[in-house]
Amino acid sequence: MQNEKLHEECGVFGIYDRSGEDEVAAKTYLALYALQHRGQETCGIVVNDEGVMRSHKDRGLVPDVFGHGALERLGKGQIAIGHVLYAAKPVQSRSSAQPLMVRHVKGPMALGTNGALVNAHELREEIERSGGIFHTDTDAEVISYMITRERLSAPSIEVAVERAVPRLRGAFSMVISSPTKLIAVRDPWGFRPLSMGRIGDDQIVFASETCAFDSIGATFVRDLRPGEIVVVDPKGERSIETHCGRRGNVCVFEYVYFARPDSVIEGASVHMARQRAGAFLAKEHPVEADVVIGVPDSGLDAAMGYARESGIPYGVGFIKNRYVGRTFIQPTQMEREALVRIKLNAVAATVKDKRVVMVDDSIVRGTTTAHIVELLRAAGAREVHMRISSPPFMNPCYFGTDIDSRDKLIACRLSLPEIARETGVDSIGFLSVPDVERIAEGAHCGFCTGCFTGKYPIEVPAEMPANKFDCPIPESVKNKKK
Amino acid sequence: MQNEKLHEECGVFGIYDRSGEDEVAAKTYLALYALQHRGQETCGIVVNDEGVMRSHKDRGLVPDVFGHGALERLGKGQIAIGHVLYAAKPVQSRSSAQPLMVRHVKGPMALGTNGALVNAHELREEIERSGGIFHTDTDAEVISYMITRERLSAPSIEVAVERAVPRLRGAFSMVISSPTKLIAVRDPWGFRPLSMGRIGDDQIVFASETCAFDSIGATFVRDLRPGEIVVVDPKGERSIETHCGRRGNVCVFEYVYFARPDSVIEGASVHMARQRAGAFLAKEHPVEADVVIGVPDSGLDAAMGYARESGIPYGVGFIKNRYVGRTFIQPTQMEREALVRIKLNAVAATVKDKRVVMVDDSIVRGTTTAHIVELLRAAGAREVHMRISSPPFMNPCYFGTDIDSRDKLIACRLSLPEIARETGVDSIGFLSVPDVERIAEGAHCGFCTGCFTGKYPIEVPAEMPANKFDCPIPESVKNKKK
Amino acid sequence: MQNEKLHEECGVFGIYDRSGEDEVAAKTYLALYALQHRGQETCGIVVNDEGVMRSHKDRGLVPDVFGHGALERLGKGQIAIGHVLYAAKPVQSRSSAQPLMVRHVKGPMALGTNGALVNAHELREEIERSGGIFHTDTDAEVISYMITRERLSAPSIEVAVERAVPRLRGAFSMVISSPTKLIAVRDPWGFRPLSMGRIGDDQIVFASETCAFDSIGATFVRDLRPGEIVVVDPKGERSIETHCGRRGNVCVFEYVYFARPDSVIEGASVHMARQRAGAFLAKEHPVEADVVIGVPDSGLDAAMGYARESGIPYGVGFIKNRYVGRTFIQPTQMEREALVRIKLNAVAATVKDKRVVMVDDSIVRGTTTAHIVELLRAAGAREVHMRISSPPFMNPCYFGTDIDSRDKLIACRLSLPEIARETGVDSIGFLSVPDVERIAEGAHCGFCTGCFTGKYPIEVPAEMPANKFDCPIPESVKNKKK
Amino acid sequence: MQNEKLHEECGVFGIYDRSGEDEVAAKTYLALYALQHRGQETCGIVVNDEGVMRSHKDRGLVPDVFGHGALERLGKGQIAIGHVLYAAKPVQSRSSAQPLMVRHVKGPMALGTNGALVNAHELREEIERSGGIFHTDTDAEVISYMITRERLSAPSIEVAVERAVPRLRGAFSMVISSPTKLIAVRDPWGFRPLSMGRIGDDQIVFASETCAFDSIGATFVRDLRPGEIVVVDPKGERSIETHCGRRGNVCVFEYVYFARPDSVIEGASVHMARQRAGAFLAKEHPVEADVVIGVPDSGLDAAMGYARESGIPYGVGFIKNRYVGRTFIQPTQMEREALVRIKLNAVAATVKDKRVVMVDDSIVRGTTTAHIVELLRAAGAREVHMRISSPPFMNPCYFGTDIDSRDKLIACRLSLPEIARETGVDSIGFLSVPDVERIAEGAHCGFCTGCFTGKYPIEVPAEMPANKFDCPIPESVKNKKK
């Protein structure tokens, strides 16, 4: 259930097509479609045709925003970048949608980023004190300033980026278009994924996830290294590695829930990582049962892994109503529980009179879980054993994930037996931190597990608000703080 | 892929609430949500509050049609009936949406039906010759006339229905509201499902599928018998069995594809029937392979059945993009193949270098299948063995299913080896007719398999157009015929 | 101000184009645009292409309903008919929009009518008792039945119409399309206007008002005679005059307010009739004043007439905000008076320190009038003398005009001095009945002034509800009556 | 006809309510409604509640943008400013809508401006060279930078504004909200109007036109002096007159066409100015005729003036279809001429067999005029004498009016006799420049007549593009220039 899940904020995509045919907008559109799960609040595309940039962005899903001829109006070009954004709070101003397009003395620049800076506040103040003005509350605007100010003295846009990066602390996987160049940048800590691909000889692409490559027929080339800057221009692509050196710390939740199962991050299949999580879970928390089921969609892979490891048969425990979308309108006279019942239905043929292992990937507040468990009981399940394929959330994320405040997190509020009682299950088991760090088999990186452990790869300012993230906070809230 | 599938036309729902509280509209809304897979073209609800009927219906999905206060405006009542409709051709006139509401000398009547009559044309002519006029081209209007004309002399609405039924030949599962009664009717041949349920002591409900009961917390009571008329009024419910006697002939495709897996029809679980279909398929068409995968969503159950029976591991072969809906806009400059690639993506981790059994429930034209197979090849599958959990379509349906014309059906055009070649698979196998008749284990009915065999439970007029169905054919077409 | 006005229900249009080019839909669209003032609730067009009829109708204004390709989808044809409808109460069901299209044994028929029958209720009961069913609560459906039932035995559609007309009592100006003929009918009492025009040699048109002819470049031929039936088919046009004979009784309010000033009805210019009304008013109710102003838009013509006759200068007293349309949203925190202020503003340069004669065409409830007078006072008017270019409404209309119930009509509630006091004017004067009957100089007809006098050209059933009109009354209301 | 008219770009409004009740948003909404004629492309409102600013702006008309709860969501506050914008070319990016809201070191600032700077390009370059970045192509963003940069050293926002004004050359009437102050500024040349009003003791308002005051019940206090800065805060209002001194040069076209007739600018009634223009025209270009008519809506006042001065009777020559709005859809198969015919219709009763003086306020390209003249001829007018209540346009405007390029202006292309021939009139006469400067009787200002004479009150850079204006030029165009 969406409203019981953590949310990742953004997905980015960029394409450079030497041949300059009219497909860069269409390919960006298809890629954003494939990245839609990373952000459903706003989306946007900027097309760069020989230095002339056309932009379209708005609130809404990719097909809604780019219908009605919007895609066609973007026209042809050599470069396009795209962005999907999730916002924790409703976006007040459409101007916060990305890519952000700014003009400065050396021409226009468009930029889309995924992640969150921990020093955005300091940088913003520094810029304002030297005459800058801000239209939005986004990290994207802060980063744009840092780059364009360097650009005043730098010999090229890539040198400006290179000089700006050391000032930025936090998570940022980003794509930038200058009038003639496409630049991709991954922060030196490697929090968020960013991959490079290729279509034929003429086209280089970058995307937050490799599933975007499949959707446009691109082949995966490699992941960007933490700190790497890749520049693509008519002369080809080249890498600036000044800021490389650290080992990556990919957010482990990318494997557990955020990324699409058909994506491969740092060499490890997300689908396989989830099955492994389920298998580890079976070892850590075995139970005698008749059937293993997953909570659709994201709990299914781990459930299969659990079933395979435990030898207990895998079954289809729930049917998800595929017509329940954003537009679900709850009749005012119905209780909230109906919402769960219309979205999911238990398959009695699978669970009736059975001891059921129900696998889900995470549990945030726990209220929806309780309703789901009721569905199983009503369908005749004799026992329900909940297994969660990640450790309990206990801490804020400073790098782009929106986590509920601590007082709402069930794992902060209650002990394990209390959680079991509150959600109505017969037993409960979470994956351990050491095991969650092993699910991405073969990944050539380390992981950030700060939300489970409270230990982060980068120093977090004590006074920083929890849940600081790169999304437009309503003006009211922000201004109040000042 | 939707556009490669057969389509069922309709779903019906009815509720009688003795207590007359204000939830009949909301419950009908939730039930139609659960029945949405049976029809996405139009939907409608009629609420009957002590003889005053309020109606709302329109083109579009349930949440779209009933948003913006439409549901609230229906108000409270004792009876509500609802309908979802699939239309093979775009509906020209909204007035064809159901429930159909008519007024006659004994007051208003609302009616929603699922199925198709084979003698609609004759009845229509008879009515017109005696002074009737038609606003739509629907069976619902023909049936309304047959009932209201009997009503002129009949002592009650249920007697009028009882007298009208023998005149109707074909498939009709319907719900009717008179000012004071809710009536459910199933045709004497039992082509389409229709079940009765209960909420507490005061509420009786009817629905095309039992999944609608789960969505509103109703408990299943029983299926209507073929030919049965159930009347619910303030005195309780009673059954008129004058036309009962025949053994049912449920459309076997309800089990194979139309119905939701969490529904139970005539005592047999749809989910289990699909798994059994897969298991039979494994016996009929075994193959040496490394993994069994299903084409989402409807091929998954049969794939699991195949895997279990064959002992070959089950795997997740495809990820479906859950944001691709009705609004997908294909960039004009992209080839049609991109449509498949954005909807589905193969999971390389599952199929790379593997011999793959790919299970789907049916194959209509075959073009989409070819694209899906390409996805597997591109992801590295070494062999692809296609298994179809139903026999090949070769004949028209006269009872409410929209089947392509024969010259487009791949099974009519090509031999098995040719189908394999055209779709690019290494081998192909369809379920046999005798086995498809065994999938619904425990069902207390027979089956209609006319679309596979050309033998129908009822005589089909030779001159009848193939694909005659209860959907508004554009006026132009109809009038041309006259 | 719209909400203080009487409303006419409908406008009709029909075109027959022997050449059968693709302009009949477009011309009907333009004609309905010109007739939009006669009805803003629903509109529709039916195009008849060699017996194949295509229809599009919906709630909304003409440009909204026929945008997005709807007009183009109607295609080409030889005949088209169109209709705009005003509904006193919100239309519950779109199926009440006209033209009504029905099918019967002799083929399809489309029909649009303007007016109201006084014996609709009787006819409806008669039809229901002989096996008819009703989908709507419109006179159009009753008339359709009367015609199609005659058609069963009549040798042609026009003979069926001829036989049906004597059964219909009340106001009906209508256009009918059969598969090959366009038929226009005006009721024998001539309540509502209906004119015939011509475009070149090949096209015959009919419209409620001549302004529709101007919008499509047609030339006026003549008004239909009361009771006349005109048939247009490939052989040309011919008239059936069986029911002619009575002198017409045109609703005088067509001249006063309903019709567009650029229309000519029964030979009399509406614009000139309004100026004459103003001139008569000046003679009946002279006053010493400095300036004569009109309430936009419909009071302006009469104000000019008053000014010319009285010799008092004409001035522009109000500016109407041309951006206030249907979509005006009143801030919830503002009082209702703001609505008047945003729609109209007084021109201080015209009225300051002046004795003002303010001319309007009618006064219904009086509340808006009071707010308008306040605007003049606030702008500095020293005296305000209200002159109304029609007599006071005191009686219901049974022929197609929606008049408020008596207890809301200011002229029923209050005496003249009380009206002056309640609306805040210094003096008040209404046009007399004898004078209102003289405003349409040269008109070759009599007038219906029943709403002023209570005397109608046709017997009105005593038990009939006031305000019976040809508009879909909500089902709830109707059914309650039974 | 709209598409044959010049366009003004913007209207501004601001309110300060000491009591801080919840009406500032609603009043701004009503005021923008009254100013809608000054700009229909975008509109926006910013509400300032104790330093917390909430903004809503979008493309579309005021009622469309602020429907659906948008107004309510703005909430209560002490200050609100609003803006309507006309854009010569379709606005690519919604972020160009005003008020522009920026954040800088001293807090947020919102700003809306009407007019155009001649040195925007220079200032923009200066800002970019010192590290600024631009999101839009608007003067508003340039002005925001100029003010916020001064703000870094200035002791208050008003001193920052005072220091910034001398850097700005051109037309700007603007309203600014800081966290605690409402500031109104009029440029030192006084190109565009800006008035101050009052509601009770607690509320001060500013608006581009006084008609906005009437719509909210405010009383006019005075016009701002050219160069004046008025600051309103909790201590009251005060004026900064450092930059005052010049005599105003109000755009004379404000009187001729832009402003609403019920507005009063610099002490002169717009309605009266138009009547005087007509009267002068009658003296300059007399003709023997039977009737004087105006082209609705803006030619009517001048026609009345002409009639009164000449003694020829005034008549209503045209009826405008009040349902033709933005949404008019021209049937593709109809010629463009139909557009004129559906919008306007000639009143034959007025013009038939008459010698007609047709008065309009201006003529741009002349094509629509030709169609209008045809309407009169078709209605039987014997002679048509066109009189234009302003001099011919021959030159670009640099101060906020969008004038067609010279090669399209009929007065640049053709001589007077040629214009008469091309538009089909019997004679033609334009108002002279000396007379147009006298129409605003009693106005305490001079006038800018640059578009007629080519002489501007301020030096215009030779290399400046014609039609430079404060509207978002599509990025493509802008960037191309660089």
TrEMBL record, chains A, B, C, D:
<feature type="binding site">
    <location>
        <position position="448"/>
    </location>
    <ligand>
        <name>[4Fe-4S] cluster</name>
    </ligand>
</feature>
<protein>
    <recommendedName>
        <fullName>Amidophosphoribosyltransferase</fullName>
        <ecNumber>2.4.2.14</ecNumber>
    </recommendedName>
</protein>
<dbReference type="GO" id="GO:0004044">
    <property type="term" value="F:amidophosphoribosyltransferase activity"/>
</dbReference>
<dbReference type="Pfam" id="PF00156">
    <property type="entry name" value="Pribosyltran"/>
</dbReference>
<feature type="binding site">
    <location>
        <position position="361"/>
    </location>
    <ligand>
        <name>Mg(2+)</name>
    </ligand>
</feature>
<keyword id="KW-0658">Purine biosynthesis</keyword>
<dbReference type="GO" id="GO:0006189">
    <property type="term" value="P:'de novo' IMP biosynthetic process"/>
</dbReference>
<feature type="binding site">
    <location>
        <position position="298"/>
    </location>
    <ligand>
        <name>Mg(2+)</name>
    </ligand>
</feature>
<feature type="binding site">
    <location>
        <position position="360"/>
    </location>
    <ligand>
        <name>Mg(2+)</name>
    </ligand>
</feature>
<feature type="binding site">
    <location>
        <position position="251"/>
    </location>
    <ligand>
        <name>[4Fe-4S] cluster</name>
    </ligand>
</feature>
<keyword id="KW-0004">4Fe-4S</keyword>
<comment type="similarity">
    <text>In the C-terminal section; belongs to the purine/pyrimidine phosphoribosyltransferase family.</text>
</comment>
<dbReference type="GO" id="GO:0051539">
    <property type="term" value="F:4 iron, 4 sulfur cluster binding"/>
</dbReference>
<feature type="binding site">
    <location>
        <position position="451"/>
    </location>
    <ligand>
        <name>[4Fe-4S] cluster</name>
    </ligand>
</feature>
<keyword id="KW-0460">Magnesium</keyword>
<keyword id="KW-0315">Glutamine amidotransferase</keyword>
<feature type="binding site">
    <location>
        <position position="397"/>
    </location>
    <ligand>
        <name>[4Fe-4S] cluster</name>
    </ligand>
</feature>
<keyword id="KW-0808">Transferase</keyword>
<dbReference type="InterPro" id="IPR017932">
    <property type="entry name" value="GATase_2_dom"/>
</dbReference>
<feature type="domain" description="Glutamine amidotransferase type-2">
    <location>
        <begin position="10"/>
        <end position="235"/>
    </location>
</feature>
<dbReference type="InterPro" id="IPR029055">
    <property type="entry name" value="Ntn_hydrolases_N"/>
</dbReference>
<feature type="active site" description="Nucleophile">
    <location>
        <position position="10"/>
    </location>
</feature>
<dbReference type="Pfam" id="PF13537">
    <property type="entry name" value="GATase_7"/>
</dbReference>
<keyword id="KW-0408">Iron</keyword>
<dbReference type="InterPro" id="IPR000836">
    <property type="entry name" value="PRTase_dom"/>
</dbReference>
<keyword id="KW-0411">Iron-sulfur</keyword>
<dbReference type="InterPro" id="IPR035584">
    <property type="entry name" value="PurF_N"/>
</dbReference>
<keyword id="KW-0328">Glycosyltransferase</keyword>
<comment type="function">
    <text>Catalyzes the formation of phosphoribosylamine from phosphoribosylpyrophosphate (PRPP) and glutamine.</text>
</comment>
<dbReference type="GO" id="GO:0000287">
    <property type="term" value="F:magnesium ion binding"/>
</dbReference>
<dbReference type="InterPro" id="IPR005854">
    <property type="entry name" value="PurF"/>
</dbReference>
<dbReference type="InterPro" id="IPR029057">
    <property type="entry name" value="PRTase-like"/>
</dbReference>
<dbReference type="GO" id="GO:0009113">
    <property type="term" value="P:purine nucleobase biosynthetic process"/>
</dbReference>
<keyword id="KW-0479">Metal-binding</keyword>
<comment type="pathway">
    <text>Purine metabolism; IMP biosynthesis via de novo pathway; N(1)-(5-phospho-D-ribosyl)glycinamide from 5-phospho-alpha-D-ribose 1-diphosphate: step 1/2.</text>
</comment>
